[in-house]
Design goal:
Layout lengths: L1 H20 L15 E2 L5 E5 L4 H6 L6 H12 L8 E4 L13 H18 L3 E5 L1 H7 L5 H4 L3 E3 L9 E5 L2 H6 L1 H11 L2 H8 L1
Parallel strand pairs: 2-3, 2-4, 4-6
Antiparallel strand pairs: 1-3, 5-6
Helix pairs in contact: 1-4
Length: 195
């Protein structure tokens, strides 16, 4: 338990460091930073795009409607938020939930890299195309969703990735809901192969 507490404290220090030094222009319009949360010893890290309104108010990632759907999907594979780590490529809410601009993504990239380097996940799961494009700009989510992507990235903690449509897509498109559940259920078998 002490080791987990120590790791959790180190992660909090990483967040505190970046809250002080992050130069993202979204800081001016956001209520607060929304760092990642969850297990500092997680085998799986979920990466989304950016905080929304509820995340901006609470300071926690994926707590709105899309987050509730993510919780549902986690439950189908017998996982809980405390078992995984959830973060975003941008740590501040863009105005009116617009897509983050490239310079905003770049200014938060060091923060994300520090989170991933410290946690050392076995598998990174992208929640939507924006998160995936940060790492794989040439891939199309319509072609690679639900597939295990193996790719070495220099000085990176894992070479195993998995792409999902963003959970918010299911809120507006009922047929997407079943597709997301179907893709999500592949995650445990991929993880078993990596252990």
């Amino acid at each position: 338990m002490a080791k987990v507490d120590s790791a959790s404290q180190t992660l909090q220090k990483i967040h505190a460091k970046w809250m002080a030094k992050c130069t993202c222009k979204l800081r001016k319009t956001a209520t607060r930073a929304v760092p990642g949360s969850g297990s500092s010893a997680a085998d799986i890290v979920f990466i989304g795009e950016a905080p929304g309104k509820k995340e901006d108010l609470t300071g926690l990632p994926f707590v709105g409607a899309a987050g509730k759907f993510l919780d549902e999907m986690l439950a189908t594979v017998k996982l809980d938020r405390k078992d995984v780590y959830i973060t975003s490529i941008v740590k501040y809410r863009p105005p009116n939930n617009r897509d983050p601009f490239p310079e905003e993504i770049r200014s938060c990239a060091g923060w994300l890299r520090d989170e991933l380097t410290f946690i050392q996940p076995k598998l990174i799961v992208f929640l939507g195309r924006h998160a995936m494009h940060q790492f794989f700009p040439d891939l199309k989510i319509s072609e690679v969703h639900g597939t295990h992507i193996e790719q070495k990235i220099p000085n990176f903690p894992t070479e195993h990735f998995f792409a999902l449509y963003h959970p918010a897509a299911a809120l507006y498109n009922g047929s997407m809901r079943e597709l997301l559940f179907s893709d999500f259920k592949k995650i445990p078998s991929i993880l078993r192969k990596l252990k």
